[in-house]
Task: inverse folding
């Protein structure tokens, strides 16, 4: 399981770096397409969401408050991205069309991270008890 997690982590980091380098290379080489704009905007949004996620590592607030703040800021980023890319014409349309899927994806990702954290804590506690 540990090897699989390591492979997955390296894959995610590689995809993130690769996406950034690819978009930058295409812009430098003046390959301007609608899909490149879309990828670039989502890449910036993903970066912002990553920075927002740093809030989850603070211990100054309870987990529920941190989750609520993270959810709101993440959705605001997704809302802005949808408006910038013209997927929707109004913030209300984003709430109506995007919020349900966003909440499902958010819950799944949150559950995976939460369970992974619990597994790691359990493993560390076992090691400490030895």
Result:
């Amino acid at each position: 399981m540990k090897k699989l997690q390591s492979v997955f982590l390296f894959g995610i980091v590689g995809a993130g770096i690769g996406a950034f380098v690819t978009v930058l290379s295409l812009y430098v080489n003046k390959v301007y397409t609608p899909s490149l704009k879309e990828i670039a905007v989502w890449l910036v949004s993903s970066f912002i969401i990553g920075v927002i996620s740093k809030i989850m590592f603070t211990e100054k607030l309870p987990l529920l408050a941190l989750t609520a703040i993270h959810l709101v800021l993440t959705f605001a980023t997704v809302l802005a991205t949808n408006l910038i890319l013209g997927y929707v014409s109004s913030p209300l349309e984003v709430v109506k069309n995007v919020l349900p899927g966003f909440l499902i994806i958010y819950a799944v990702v949150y559950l995976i991270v939460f369970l992974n954290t619990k597994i790691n804590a359990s493993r560390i506690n076992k090691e400490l008890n030895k």
User: Anything to note?
Assistant: The mean pLDDT is 87. The radius of gyration is 18 Å.
